[in-house]
UniProtKB/TrEMBL annotation:
UniProt organism field: Takifugu bimaculatus
Pfam families documented for this protein: Sugar_tr (PF00083)
Principal location class: membrane
Subcellular localization: Membrane
Listed GO MF terms: transmembrane transporter activity
Superkingdom, natural source: Eukaryota
Transmembrane parts of this sequence: 12-36, 68-90, 102-120, 126-149, 161-181, 193-214, 275-296, 308-327, 334-355, 361-385
Protein name as it appears in the record: Major facilitator superfamily (MFS) profile domain-containing protein
Alphabetized InterPro entries for the sequence: MFS_sugar_transport-like (IPR005828), MFS_trans_sf (IPR036259)
Amino acid sequence: MYLAPLQRSVYWRLALLFLLNPLIFFLDIFTDAIFATSCRHSNLTVTNGSLLPGADSDQSWPAEACGWVDWLSCSQTLFMVGMLLGSLFGGAISDRYGKRPLMLVCLCADSICVLLPAMLPQPLLYLGLRCVTGVCFCCLSTSSFSLAVEWAHPEARLWPSAFLPCCFSIGTMATALLAWLSPTLTKLHLSMSLPQLACLPLFFSIPESPRWLLLKKRMDILERYRNNSPEDKHFLDLVLDSARSSLQKASEVQEKRLPGDLASCDYFHFKHPTVLLRLLIMSYLSAATALTYYGICMNIGSFSVDVFVAQFFSGLSEIPCLLLPLIRMGRRPLTMLTLFLSGAACFLTLLLSRYNTEPKLVLSVALLGKLCILGASFITVLYSIELFPTVIRQRCVSLVNLSFRSGCLANSLLFTHPHGMISVAALVVYSSGPIIGSGLCLMLPETSGTQLPDSVEDWRKTASIQRGVRRKHPILGFYEQPSSN
């Protein structure tokens, strides 16, 4: 697929950003591993845990910090709390001030928050900074992903949702290698923060979203982008025409609304049974995918396999999601398939772990479930956008995203596993949630290839047209007669 020069400028920088994001995201896992190993060595305690290369007590952290091991296990929870807070206002800030400024501010803040514990090694400071880092990480992910989608061709917007997480997976493998080479907490924080600080100047020249510039009437910047090259001019014309078309539709719907008419009020649409049903189902799917994905991701060291090796293969297992846009299936069947396979893999992991099977086999099956649930999360993001009408789409998608962040927080609060294997209750939740969600998808319509609805009335028109059009039988090949209803 051909990319215009400005597109390439955006995507190679965003690819670098997603390569660096795991340095922030997985810091808690390696901090816990190194902290526990350092304290065990300082106390001369013999355990069955895997030892780090050249592990030794970290003299830069105070000796009494070993009494904070239980408190440091809360850092993951604080990080998720920060992500939940960031999801509440990150989108509004990016809509008001732009994706690029928010991304740059969060990048600087993240780098500083990861670097400070190396210079000021205090457990309480580390816990507070992890909450701030969670806020910045969520805002950074929201703004960068939106920037990638809005710089994509209107017909190729599924590719950023697969390409950028693939870069995140490669960064996960690199993070495991860097952590393995950092035997102390000070070296770990330096190795996680310095690459981000070194790459920070590269992001100051990233272009702003053309859609946001059009909304804010920043035509001077858009004209400068268009004059960059003939390819950029052609590409931006396509993107801006698509943006103008969608904005015009939204404006027409807005003009049809009467100020005192409850039937045209946005909040009135939320009382519609179809809206409520779809909102509840998509919120459940988001919470279930968050529980399963982050449950496996954040407890990857609980499968009796070295945490660094497990984290490396955890990133490797996600790379096949890059092929997701090539699968020619509708939204509903693909969502159902990935959810069911993920739940089945987690249930098989539960059975294998109970019968003391080889840990490497248990980990492999768990990573298969992680791959499937990651694919399901990609599709549900697009599914959520296509299911709701324009007048309330942004609010509905925001509520679905809030359910996702709530699932992340619930996982860190309810299913923490500081010792040994993942509990049976956690694996039951990880396996049953996606399977139930797969069944709930039967109550949702297929949206692939259909026009986005502008109002609830458009649903009724579309449904009546679909009932009156002959449909081809999926197996036998003949055309069914229209329903008499």
